[in-house]
Write a structure and sequence with these properties.
Helices cover 70% and strands 2% of the residues. The chain is mainly alpha-helical. It has a two-stranded antiparallel ribbon. It is globular, with a radius of gyration of 26 Å.
Length: 402
């Protein structure tokens, strides 16, 4: 018997029994009966999400996150790239590959805002699945791949910051094993940054593989698709053979806690090293005052980014495990819905954090100022050119009249 249907005494959900049973049916059946999925998505759409005030709130929340995330991350990518090419001397920190990794982090946030949020807004607006189950499965797979790559990028930044701090202050610890890895890369050499940007994607693919490839061992990990219970394109988990175990929650917990531990250990070590160096007067021997101030500001900015990561993604652990809890259906849906509404802000908050860093504000000003000046100059040239053409035409007209 199919493991998706192999469960006894399903919970008694009034008028939702069909939705609950179909959610755990065979993946082949779900994929082949696209019309059934779409029809059931309309029928089974959560009642709480149909309330006009809740519906408007959810849509507005996602729209604000998407606007800030798309605009902010596009501005960060454009400004940092522009200043790196045009005026790198004004920003000495560009010799540090952390800026490249921060660009990669902004790219992940931008991709999530473009790929993950618009389809969900469409679902909220349509009160059901408005497109095929195949598209839903692809979108949910890509969205989760981007999300875990985003988490792991933060962990990579934290570990490399720790390595750079250890090497700069010549502190002995287990990171000496990686002494050959350069902390400040020559400008033409992009091998290491590309490696650091590629590794999170590969690890992210490993993390989502049990669900992506629908593994059945040692437990049934479920699949990606439209979740009829919660009204989202995300994971569809089977009824668990082991009571209280959520495969999806287990994967998210691993994908969250591994970066979270790496980030916390790294920044605790960095804070301890920098405090010891400042007390001993060692920092002045290694860095100039301006360079030390830049490094300190960058460290504060990255600490805020990682703090935001914990605040906005941490609660999602409980949301992911809620499927295994013995709660009322409406309570589960409410926790799941508003938990994700809170979590999605992580993809817009980084831009707000960057705005508090002086170097990033200077880069934003430089880029926007140069863009404004360039547009103004082009408009002026076009006006002058049109004016000259008008004069030529007038003179030609007078000449013809003579």
């Amino acid at each position: 018997m199919d493991e998706y249907n192999n469960f006894d005494d399903p919970p008694d959900y009034p008028s939702k029994g069909d939705c609950y049973s179909f959610s755990f049916s065979s993946p082949d059946t779900v994929v082949s009966e696209l019309d059934t999925v779409v029809n059931l998505s309309m029928k089974c759409y959560p009642t709480i999400m149909k309330i006009p005030a809740v519906k408007i709130l959810l849509i507005m929340n996602l729209c604000v996150v998407m606007i800030i995330g798309v605009f902010g991350n596009l501005l960060t990518l454009s400004s940092v790239s522009y200043c790196y090419v045009k005026c790198k001397r004004d920003f000495p920190g560009f010799d540090n590959h952390v800026y490249i990794l921060m660009l990669h982090l902004s790219l992940c946030d931008l991709l999530y805002c473009l790929v993950g949020l618009p389809p969900q807004i469409y679902i909220y607006h349509s009160e059901g699945l408005p497109y095929s189950a195949h598209i839903c499965k692809i979108l949910s797979s890509v969205r989760n791949l981007i999300a875990y790559a985003d988490f792991l990028s933060l962990a990579t930044i934290a570990l490399l910051r720790l390595h750079a701090t250890v090497k700069r202050f010549d502190v002995f610890c287990f990171f000496k094993t990686f002494e050959k890895i350069p902390c400040h890369l020559p400008c033409p050499d992009i091998t290491w940054p590309l490696l650091y940007c590629t590794m999170p994607w590969l690890l992210s693919l490993v993390i989502i593989s049990p669900i992506l490839f629908e593994w059945k061992t040692p437990v049934d990990w479920g699949r990606y698709g439209y979740n009829l219970i919660f009204g989202v394109c995300n994971t569809v988990t089977p009824k668990y053979s082991m009571s209280g175990i959520s495969p999806n929650g287990l994967i998210y917990t691993i994908g969250f806690f591994v970066p979270f531990l790496a980030i916390n250990i790294s920044y605790c070590c960095i804070a301890r090293i920098m405090a010891a160096q400042e007390d001993g007067g060692g920092q002045g021997q290694n860095l100039s005052t301006s360079s030390a101030a830049r490094q300190r500001n960058l460290h504060i900015t990255l600490t805020r980014v990682c703090g935001s990561y914990a605040i906005f993604t941490g609660p999602l652990i409980f949301v992911q495990w809620i499927e295994a809890a013995n709660l009322e259906l409406e309570a589960m849906i409410a926790i799941h819905t508003f938990g994700f509404a809170w979590y999605w802000w992580i993809y817009a908050i980084n831009f707000i954090v960057y705005m508090r860093n002086q170097d990033f504000r200077d880069m934003y000003r430089r880029f926007l100022g140069d863009v404004y000046t360039n547009i103004k100059t082009r408009i002026k040239r076009m006006s002058n050119k049109n004016g000259q053409n008008s004069i030529y035409q007038l003179n030609a007209f007078k000449y013809m009249q003579q």
